[in-house]
């Protein structure tokens, strides 16, 4: 159903509103009209309830005099419209026809909600009670609420959850819970069906890159209110998933991988967590003026149109190493790697390597402005060298994506990627940090908290993309 098409009348009957009898029409195009209003069922109507002889329409409208008025601008707000059919037969028909139109939209009826009460400023419980729950209630969506108790709890829940009866999994947190859920679903025996479960993201953490990317794609602000509306409306899109492999270990990524400057800022700034969100900017200044470079090499399969980036890569005995050592495990093993395709390379030293699956790395970092949700490619941002003053300017342009236009930056798209990280150029006894989706995947020697165990070692790893493997709720354009 096209919500912009008014269509023919599906039901037209006089009703009583505020003591006045007025004509009301529900069209096949999903419009509910009466003299003062025109509501789109797909975009404006959350749900409805029948209370005695009255029907209450729970809707979201822009603050202003009328939702159909040209030029009307304002923040969305909840609003209830009440009308009373003039007979029991009319009441029954309105109930049936309204429900039929809503059901035709494929909206979720029951959600499993994962809430991280500890992330960011610990605001998720309040975000849920103030912004999410009222909208779900208005939409008559049932839900099961589960608070996470510890790191990787969401992954465990997603791995064992009986998905039958649920229409989606809702993550109320930063990006971390979403990543855990994706990994949990893909490690199930029934991963191929489990990963089709639609996932929703409510921004309530330190990093909200996925929610920002989804909402910004249609020009909406990154708020829990808008994110919840996107989930209620039920519109879905496919999302690429990248598999990171190192020997027998694998990790599924939906956001980014960083090594060098960006990873150092993201992870090492944790020592200044008491500063709140200012810690990132504060530590970025430190890292710029005490700039590190890392030896290493990257190899990649370039997307069409980017084949001339880097230098030719002479293929050696490493080609068969990745696939020959793989042992079948439960869950998804990741895509097949044809290492012969890794025909381009760039040698270090590097200031920063950054791979992105979605445009925004956070609410104020437009890391990869050309990234798409399901194009089958990762956006690669490479910085080999940059004067410190230019670097400070470049970092300041990340909020609008201007950094990728710098002459000190290479910006391209890749289908597959191999990272061979090395030591710091100024100190061979110190290595770096590999950051995936905001979590430490590997720590080299001499790094911040290098004694802590990580999933992978600071060594060669490979990444390849599965186009559109996952599904996420997305706002309507």
UniProtKB/TrEMBL annotation:
GO biological process: cellular response to abscisic acid stimulus; sphingolipid metabolic process
Subcellular location: Vacuole membrane
Keywords: ATP-binding, Kinase, Membrane, Nucleotide-binding, Transferase
EC nos: 2.7.1.91
Database matches in InterPro entries: ATP-NAD_kinase_N (IPR017438), Diacylglycerol_kinase_cat_dom (IPR001206), Lipid_Phosphate_FormReg (IPR050187), NAD/diacylglycerol_kinase_sf (IPR016064), YegS/DAGK_C (IPR045540)
Keyword Kinase among UniProt keywords: yes
Listed GO CC annotations: plant-type vacuole membrane
Gene Ontology molecular function: ATP binding; sphingosine kinase activity
Superkingdom of this protein's organism: Eukaryota
Residue ranges occupied by any DAGKc domain in the UniProt entry: 106-248
Membrane topology label: Peripheral membrane protein
UniProt-listed PANTHER family: SPHINGOSINE KINASE (PTHR12358), SPHINGOSINE KINASE 1-LIKE ISOFORM X1 (PTHR12358:SF102)
Protein name, entry field: sphingosine kinase
UniProt organism field: Solanum stoloniferum
Phylogenetic classification of the source organism: Eukaryota, Viridiplantae, Streptophyta, Embryophyta, Tracheophyta
